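Quick one, T. Sequence first:
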Amino acid sequence: MDNNIYRPHTRLQPHRRKSVRRRAISAFLVAIILLFGVLFWKSSALLSLVWKTGLTQIAHLNSPPPEPVNMLLLGVGGGTHAGPDLTDTIIFMHIDPVHKKISLVSLPRDLWIPSMNAKVNATYTFANEKNPGSGLATTEKAIGDILGQHINYGIKIDFGGFVKAVNILGGLDINVARTFDDYQYPLTGQEDATCGLTQAQVASASAAIASGSATNLQEFPCRYKHIHFNKGPMHMDGETALEYVRSRHAIGIEGSDFARSQRQEKVISAIKAKLFSLGTLFNPVKIIDLINTLQGSIVTDITQNQYSNFIRLAQEMKGAKISSSVIDTGDMEHDRYGLLINPPISAAYGGQWVLVPRAGANDYSQIQQYVACEITVGNCIVEKYGIITPTPKPSRAVKGQ
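Structure tokens:
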């Protein structure tokens, strides 16, 4: 096996905290409201500064009309295992203030990056281990190259911040579309548990998993728990809401990224409703708690001098159209083609289960075409040999491309 294949070590990137001024409370609230509504679409926790900062960038542009802004949103599970900063959720966010449109594109964490000899979810940690503090910029560059888009800003947030924020809000009311079970939901703090196996047995079990002859759940059951959701209305606390949107291994259709996206969309309305409620808007203690909680969970390259003049813009963008798409392998049972394939496990990929572009291991042309179509037109369709593009509407690229 290639010794250069990346494997995570320890957390090196500390969380950066930013001061909160009382005169900015109302501005922060508007930002949090809109950000929760948009960000939680896919990441379950990537929420507070994103919208605020995106709108701040728009506010500081000197010449009208305002330019589009691209952001990279990273969600990490945290925990006590060896790779707490491995990104569990990766979302590209395009904000178009001219057409009042927000486009979200999710990337799978198992996408292989040949230039780094690692999966894309390891890029942040890999860069920080080589050059502390470079994780966000390196990940922005890597994702930007894949998508063919210049990324203005990046934000990383841990899921613990989302759980606390939802609890501060008093929980969420969600109407679950389908009953589903996930027997492989990861337990925080148990990521590297040996489940009573000896060192030799762990090595044997790991080899069996790598070869595909066994699963993680079979060999290390103590690392996971069974979660179950019944169809119908349900009140969820922060932990339950996180499980609802983060579940990846549900049995049946709910185990797909597509279904996961639909679940996360439902949470948007619930969060917006709770944030816009009088119990939140006129409760300064709750507002300050939300701000402090989210800021303590965020790492970003957005500077403090970009935190002003966005209330008006936030209100203008409040009714913006939100679209969401996923870069994945498709679903042939429902006649949906994808842009990625799963190649056989081999030494070329460090013996790991990975995803690569269907056009070729280092050919991102179809992915770039699809993303460009989504942010300019929308409702683009992946076909067997290409992308079907609807009649385009005028739009401009982000500065820096």
